[in-house]
From TrEMBL:
It holds the Pfam family Endonuclease_NS. GO terms for molecular function: metal ion binding; nucleic acid binding; RNA endonuclease activity; single-stranded DNA endodeoxyribonuclease activity. Keywords: Endonuclease, Hydrolase, Magnesium, Metal-binding, Nuclease, Signal. This is Endonuclease. SUPFAM superfamilies: His-Me finger endonucleases. It comes from Drosophila grimshawi. The lineage of its organism: Eukaryota, Metazoa, Ecdysozoa, Arthropoda, Hexapoda. The keyword Ligase does not apply. Its EC number is 3.1.30.-. GO terms for biological process: apoptotic DNA fragmentation. PANTHER family: ENDONUCLEASE G, MITOCHONDRIAL, ENDONUCLEASE RELATED.
Amino acid sequence: MSHSWQLLLVVSLGLASSVACFVAGVYFQHSHATRLLHKLVQRDPYACYISPKIYKAFCFFDTEDGTAHRVQRIMKYGFPGLDDVRFYSDFVLSYDRRNRVAHWVCEHLQKSNVQGLRGVGRGRANYRSDWSVPSNFRSTLADYRHSGFDRGHLAAAANHRDKQSHCNETFLLTNIAPQIGQGFNSGAWNKLEIYVRELAQHFGSVYVCTGPLFKPRPQGGDKWNVEYQMIGSNMVAVPTHFFKVIMLESKLPLGKPYMEAYVLPNATLPEKLELRQFLCDIREIEHYAGLDFFQGIRRSDIFGSNYPNESQVFRDFN
Ligand SMILES: *[C@@H]1O[C@H](CO)[C@@H](O)[C@H](O)[C@H]1NC(C)=O
Ligand SMILES: *[C@@H]1O[C@H](CO)[C@@H](O)[C@H](O)[C@H]1NC(C)=O
Ligand SMILES: CC(=O)N[C@H]1CO[C@H](CO)[C@@H](O)[C@@H]1O
């Protein structure tokens, strides 16, 4: 009798300890795999893109969550496109290897990066080629020299003043596009950048996506013709227009986000024009750029159903 009790005890102890070992093993395997996944997501844009799905399928144990990576913060509302996505310390960019300018640059502005620290700024930074781009697709300083165009920032330098290294990265030529200087880069475009920073100061959390557009000209019938200049021996495309899509997060817990978009022609613009006159329908920009902005938000939450029947993106301002 006592013998069989002993046997039962030994067997159940053995069973319990093997179950415990198994659970512990699974747990450690899982946390190890999660760590590897975190690392992968921080390195690889495509892993980052699908990471919400992976995490959802993966989280049967609670894992430490507070370490939301900066890329996941900047790209919280989705990637506009997935062509050659590149991570920098305070912005994310998709590079167009054919045109040698970015397709889009996304930033998340908060008071901290806009207000910045004393002594941090563009005075201490230099334009430089981005060596992470393969040499045959890279634009160089020589391409811009004597071209007559400014090296225009897509992610503005003054948006990234919380660290000098962040500000320095905005001077990489992947974040630069040829812009008309007088009356554009130092005019209306600058006004738009200042306006965006004011929004960040005021609302505390602003998502901005900036990029180039190339204007199609009607040729009669259903035919179109796209023409643009290229500069330098690497043939850096000169965009005909630039867009900025802006999203403000509401400070109220149930408040809806607010989006607006601006398109400016790469031209000398009269000074009297107000920013309001460059407002455009976001869906129209998506159509011409082939991008999808802030897909994490239902458009019906934001737009009415009436949007212009004629293209406003490529209006004339002169
Ligand atoms: C920023 O760039 C300047 C000029 O290229 C360089 O001297 C400086 O060390 C850089 N600072 C950081 C923090 O990378
Ligand atoms: C667009 O709508 C306006 C008024 O709603 C109309 O006058 C105009 O002819 C329309 N344009 C086109 C191209 O349909
Ligand atoms: C609207 C527009 O096309 N603007 C100009 C942008 O810059 C190029 C290069 O000079 C011009 O050709 C475009 O006309």
